[in-house]
Write a structure and sequence with these properties.
Largest sheet: 8 strands, mixed
CATH class of the largest domain: Mainly Alpha
CATH topology of the largest domain: Rhopdopsin 7-helix transmembrane proteins
Structural class: alpha/beta
CATH superfamily of the largest domain: Rhodopsin 7-helix transmembrane proteins
Shape: rod-shaped
Number of strands: 28
Helix content: 40-55%
CATH architecture of the largest domain: Up-down Bundle
Strand order of the largest sheet: 9-8-10-11-12-17-18-19
Distance between the termini: 147 Å
Number of helices: 24
Number of domains: 5
Radius of gyration: 52 Å
Length: about 800
């Protein structure tokens, strides 16, 4: 014998057709099973229906009466006259199902609910005998989150009732939304009493004002309370504009309660989206309902409220209401039942139908197993024995999905996404615009046809519900203090960074050879920069180098042409030739610093510069020492006569250059210069340059040249006043002063510049110091040779001495 509880029949003083439909669907399912020879043959299912009155105490009393079989129930005793209690179907409410499950669980009776979606029933330790043919709330949370993600609604509100189950579910929904990366702007609990107190009325008005002011455009109505949907027909909700109401599955079923009068005052819900338990067709149920009459129904008193509502008359089976007339026989026989909508369009009716069939299949399998073991199939069984067969139920009802229970007593979750539409002057309608199937593979669980959705007329386009507008690429999010993560400011990426996604939390750096574009939403190749001949600075420096090298060639030519004159012979003309060649090469070596650097040029240019300049400076030092030797060698009995000549000068140059060559070879062997890229000095550019490798080696080369220059300056300064008309000491002193000044100022200038300007500074130092030597030592000589040849005579030299 099946036992079932029925729901409250009347809501707000009016007939609740939904619960009558549940009752009749249960009755129809039992009739079908009893007429089906393939299920429980030779066994007739009975049932007992009790009204829960949406009250826990009534439900527990009714359950106890079913178990004991008497009105004055005594716990622990059974006075059943016939049959045996197999299990319980219901209730629709999670709160009542919870109370019944805890009570019947003591006796280990299975219970299959057709409406309780609360996920607390997933606890198999506390509810090992509880099953349901509706999805649990956890699957609905995932569907709601996917809906929010689809429309990018990350700032939503939640309205629920004061029901314990609703509050528990709404809090869990809030956690899931936050866990998914979205935010909840508010979670408010609405009083659900039909007759509101002044305090409750004020509270509802405050909530309505808050919801209206909130920037959250999407608001989830989460409740299974019978009054929840009707709440939004009250005047204060009609003043709220530009809100998308997202209605949970249990609440969306209450849309069938709406009468034309109620619908006309519920325009706030126009354009809403609702999750609905997927409906299935029950073959023959429509015909059963439309052929239903009190004259043919086993217990006409069940149909009494229907006819009272439809025809304002009653079927007299007891005390007559004074304000109602008797229904005539013609009214009873000829009038169709007062169904207002398509019976296949109701939710939870199908889940109730499948719940009865699931229990019947479990009973059939149990009796089949017993008969195969040779036991009497009418043998009574313990309630817990049926539990193992319910776990293994697996069948496919007509026009529906497969029914089976997982390890938590749940069936696969299927939802329809419904668009509630209320066109002006027309009846309320619901349009299926999508589906959610939790058992489908990832990426195929959720589908919504966005083009089919008819939004509330207050929206011109798809609504947006965000705390802050998305940060476009090129920007990053900065959270606002003391606000949820969905509230943020958008700031541009820092210099050298980019973001190519919407709502980027961090900007990224481009690869070393790339740089962010103007919008900072991508990277572009850096402009490669080096001191080239094409740019003005490179062209000017190259022109100066070539100009001075030509001047040096001219001077060398003059000295060769006038090599036999006293001016050229004085102070060792071979040293003059070596110095002029070194200066010419130093001017030309600056050209190696200009143009695109390469591996070979990086290895050679500093080494070539160091050796050539060392040759030039050592030549100047040799000239200075030659002046000293030449003056002192003319004295009687001087021991310096044997050192006079070119041999000592050449040897000195070779010795000085050898030291520099050793330094350069060590540099090339230990840490040679190499081609490098500088991406830090100039914005958006990549400077192609030669990295000196060893800084110590580089400054050792410069320092050694400086040492020779200082030594030359000191010696030249000491002999600057020797009585020789062709004495070079004064010119060498001044040239070394210029040389040292240039290279002393070079070091801070070189260290304070970057990239190609470092190269330009070094080139300038090479040109300036070389030009100083050329100008100070050779220009005065050329002036005498070319302009005042009368001074370029031995006689003039003797007179001076």
């Amino acid at each position: 014998m099946l036992r079932a509880s029925r729901g409250l029949w009347q809501v707000a003083g009016r007939l609740n057709l939904r619960y009558f439909r549940h009752l009749l669907a249960f009755y129809f399912a039992v009739l079908e099973i009893n007429q089906n020879i393939d299920i429980l043959p030779n066994i007739t299912l009975g049932f007992h229906i009790a009204d829960t009155c949406t009250n826990v105490e009534f439900s527990l009393c009714s359950t106890l009466m079913i178990l004991t079989g008497v009105m004055d129930a005594v716990p622990g005793f059974s006075c059943q006259q016939q049959g045996q209690v197999a299990g319980f179907i219901g209730s629709f409410s999670s709160v009542i199902s919870h109370a019944i499950a805890r009570f019947t669980g003591i006796y280990k009776y299975p219970q299959i609910s057709y409406g309780a979606m609360d996920q607390l029933f997933n606890d198999r330790v506390e509810f090992p005998f509880f099953y349901r043919t509706v999805p649990n709330d956890q699957s609905q949370y995932q569907g709601l989150i996917q809906l929010l993600n689809l429309f990018r609604w990350n700032w939503v509100g939640i309205l629920t009732s004061e029901d314990d189950s609703d509050q528990r579910g709404s809090e869990e929904l809030k956690k899931e939304i936050i866990r998914s990366g979205s935010c909840v702007a508010f979670l408010e609990k609405l009083p659900m009493a039909f007759l509101l107190t002044i305090e409750q009325f004020g509270r509802l008005s405050q909530i309505a004002v808050m919801v209206n002011k909130s920037i959250a455009k999407a608001v989830i109505i989460y409740s299974a309370n019978s009054y929840m949907a009707i709440q939004f027909c009250f005047p204060w909700w009609q003043m709220i504009a530009e809100k998308v109401w997202i209605i949970s599955a249990a609440t969306s079923s209450l849309a069938n309660l709406f009468t034309p009068v109620i619908i006309s005052s519920c325009r706030a819900l126009n354009g809403s989206l609702a999750f609905a338990i997927q409906k299935g067709n029950i073959p023959g149920f429509k015909e059963f309902l439309y052929n239903l009459h009190p004259s043919t129904f086993p217990d006409p008193s069940f149909l009494q409220p229907l006819w009272m509502e439809a025809f304002h008359c009653e079927i007299v089976y007891g005390t007559k209401h004074s304000n109602l007339t008797n229904c005539t026989e013609q009214e009873i026989l000829s009038n169709l039942p007062p169904w207002r909508f398509d019976v296949n369009n109701f939710q939870f009716t199908y889940s109730l139908y499948t719940a009865v069939y699931a229990l019947a299949h479990a009973l059939h399998n149990m009796y089949t197993a017993k008969s195969q073991l040779g036991w009497d199939q009418n043998l009574e069984f313990q309630p817990w024995q049926l539990n193992q067969y319910i776990k293994k139920v697996h069948y496919k009802p007509p026009d529906g999905h497969e029914i089976f229970f997982d390890d938590k007593g749940n069936v696969p979750a299927y939802y329809d996404v419904i668009n509630w539409v209320m066109p002006p002057g027309r009846h309320f309608s619901s349009i299926s615009v999508g589906k959610f199937n939790s058992s489908a593979s990832s990426g195929q669980q959720f589908f919504v046809n966005q083009s089919a959705i008819m939004w509330n007329p207050s929206f011109n386009d798809t609504p947006r519900s965000v705390c802050s507008e998305s940060c476009v690429p090129g920007h990053r999010k900065v959270l606002q203090r003391q606000k949820p993560v969905c509230c943020f400011d958008c700031i541009p990426c820092s210099e050298g960074e980019f973001s190519n996604t919407t709502d980027a939390e961090n900007c990224m750096k481009c690869p070393d050879d790339q740089w962010p574009n103007v919008r900072k939403d991508g990277c572009i190749p850096r402009a490669i920069v080096f001191l080239s001949y094409e740019e003005p600075l490179g062209a000017v420096l190259a022109s100066i180098a070539i100009f001075f090298s030509i001047i040096t060639d001219i001077v060398l030519g003059i000295f060769i042409k006038y090599q036999h004159t006293p001016m050229v012979k004085a102070n060792n003309r071979d040293l003059s030739y070596i110095l002029l060649l070194a200066l010419m090469l130093s001017f030309l070596c600056s050209l190696v610093f200009i143009g695109r650097p390469g591996r070979v040029t990086c290895l050679l240019r500093q080494v070539a510069f160091g050796i050539i300049f060392t040759t030039a400076v050592s030549s100047v030092l040799a000239k200075t020492i030659t002046v000293v030797i030449a003056f002192n060698a003319t004295k009687p009995s001087s021991k310096l006569r044997k050192w006079a000549g070119t041999r000592i000068s050449i040897s000195l140059i070779l010795l000085c250059c050898l030291v520099q060559v050793v330094i350069c070879i060590a540099w090339l062997l230990i840490s040679p210069p190499f081609l490098d890229y500088d991406t830090q000095s100039e914005t958006g550019m990549m400077i192609l340059q030669c990295n000196e490798g060893s800084t110590i080696a580089f400054y050792s080369v410069i320092g050694y040249m400086g040492f020779l220059a200082v030594l030359s300056f000191i010696v030249a300064f000491l002999v600057r006043k020797l009585p020789d008309s062709f004495n070079e000491a004064q010119f060498i002193s001044f040239s070394m002063l210029v040389f040292c000044s240039v290279w002393v100022s070079f070091i801070p200038a070189y260290l304070s510049t970057k990239g190609k300007y470092m190269v330009a500074v070094e080139i300038f130092a090479i040109l300036a110091s070389s030009a100083g030597l050329l100008g100070c030592i050779f220009i005065p000589k050329c002036h005498i040779i070319l302009i005042k040849p009368e001074l370029n005579t031995r006689g003039h030299l003797i007179v001076k001495q």
